[in-house]
UniProtKB/TrEMBL annotation:
Any Pfam family the entry gives: RRF
UniProt record, GO biological process: cytoplasmic translational termination
Biological role stated in the UniProt entry: Responsible for the release of ribosomes from messenger RNA at the termination of protein biosynthesis. May increase the efficiency of translation by recycling ribosomes from one round of translation to another.
Predominant cellular place of this UniProt entry's protein: cytoplasm
Similarity comment: family membership: Belongs to the RRF family.
Lineage: Bacteria, Pseudomonadati, Pseudomonadota, Alphaproteobacteria, Rhodobacterales
GO CC annotations, alphabetized: cytosol
Keywords tagged on the record: Cytoplasm, Protein biosynthesis
Molecular function terms from GO: ribosomal large subunit binding
Protein name (record): Ribosome-recycling factor
Compartment(s) where it occurs, according to its Swiss-Prot or TrEMBL record: Cytoplasm
Residue ranges of domain Ribosome recycling factor in the record: 23-186
Amino acid sequence: MSDEFELDTDDLTRRMEGAISALRTEFASLRTGRASGSMLEPIMVDAYGSPTPINQVGTINVPEPRMVTINVWDKGLVNKVEKAIRESGLGINPQLNGTIIMLPIPELNEERRRELTKVAGSYAESARVSVRNLRRDGMDKIKKAKADSSLSEDDQKFWESEVQELTDRFIKAVDDLLETKQAEIMQV
């Protein structure tokens, strides 16, 4: 190995793990027909003059498989939370009961399930693109070191195979997550 050049594979790994983490977050927001508090995470409520995440204005619970409840702490925000949910595009019709907002989760029909699998596929493709971009960054650093003559051809091949191995591992992780999520969505 050349003493002058060492690719920071830990940094590449950390950045690729970030792409996987972002994918998991996006997948969590996809509605699968089962109630989940995480499906409300992207919703922002206009609270006290600024956009606030919904989980900072109330307690989110899942008392049964097809119901999510939000116990809004400030009575004055109940209507704003309800409005934010209606406008979120989740397709859920909130029901008010004092400071508690109940969200019955309707059964997904076949067409909607297929749409959601396509959305999941596009999220996965974005994650793959991120991983490939990180691969390109790593390969560019290797090529630059080779051009600067601080890297032998054997070392170049070694580092390129290391980066490719890392990329293949993370692309497989993306594919596995997608397969699991699509099976979850299609499950009736």
